[in-house]
Amino acid sequence: ANHLLAKIEDLGITADDSVVQNASMAFDISVWQMLAALAVGGRVRVVGAEAAVDPVGLFARVADERITVLEVVPSLLRAAIDAWDAGMPAERLPDLRWLVVTGETLPPDLCGRWFARFPGIPLVNAYGPTECSDDITHAVIRAEDPVGELRVTIGRPVRNTRLYVLDAELAPVPVGVPGELYAGGVGVARGYGGRPGLTAERFVPDPFGPAGSRLYRT
């Protein structure tokens, strides 16, 4: 529920929105794609497996059906832009408000190529593991925002989520010092079913949260 509300709040989803459900039911991201718009009276457009992996065809559906929110992986986005650059007809996407990218590292050059075609449609770089109920950060990226040459930020924690960069002793590291990202908050799972050893390794006591809470080692 927290993740659904995070998507609704951060993307400003309302009854006027239409969200594509293009993820397999086996993947965690399918949950928000199916339910977030419905929770506020909006519309969900379910696409089949073949349409979901057809880069040019998927964006054509977005244009034809006046979709306002779409989520894709960066590799599919790159394939679509490559096809348009090679001469395939490019859609205008007048109704698309957000393009959410997730599941893979978002390369800086891909942001530039997207904004070269669609400067008015912001990207949302979404990051999060299944063990934390899907996305734990959102980074809104607009055409005028500077994007680093090496990596794109994963942004800030979503609602009711805490993030820490810690050393091996679970102590915060200074800015610029490498560490491991730990996630805390209401979205952290209880552990892995039937795997107590792995649960103990990845879900550790939270020294910064309420008694009994745990952090997930990403």
Helix and strand element order: HEHEHHEHEHEEEEEHEE
State the distance separating the first and last CA atoms. 21 Å
**Helix/strand structural class:** alpha/beta
CATH superfamily of the largest domain: ANL, N-terminal domain
Give the domain tally: 2
Shape: globular
- Say what the CATH topology of the largest domain is: Rossmann fold
Q: Could you estimate the helical fraction of the residues in percent? A: 25-40%
Tally of DSSP β-strands = 11
Provide the descriptors you would attach to this structure in a database record.
single chain, 218 residues, alpha/beta, Rossmann fold, Luciferase, domain 3, 5-stranded mixed sheet, 4-stranded antiparallel sheet, 7 helices, globular
Give a description of the structure.
This protein has 218 residues and is α/β, with parallel strands linked by helices. The protein has two domains: 1-157, ANL, N-terminal domain (Rossmann fold, 3-Layer(aba) Sandwich); 161-217, Luciferase, Domain 3 (Luciferase, domain 3, Roll). The protein is built from seven helices and eleven strands. It has helices at residues 2-11, 29-39, 49-52, 55-64, 74-85, 108-117, 196-202; strands spanning 18-21, 43-46, 69-72, 98-101, 123-127, 137-141, 156-157, 161-166, 180-185, 203-205, 214-217. Strands 3-4-5-6-7 form a five-stranded mixed sheet. A four-stranded antiparallel sheet has the order 8-9-11-10. A two-stranded parallel sheet has the order 1-2. Strand 10 (203-205) and strand 11 form a beta hairpin. The radius of gyration is 18 Å and the shape is globular. It starts with a helix and ends with a strand. The mean pLDDT is 96. One of its GO terms (biological process) is amino acid activation for nonribosomal peptide biosynthetic process. GO terms for molecular function: phosphopantetheine binding. Residues 11-192 form the AMP-dependent synthetase/ligase domain. One of its GO terms (cellular component) is cytosol. This is NRPS A domain protein.
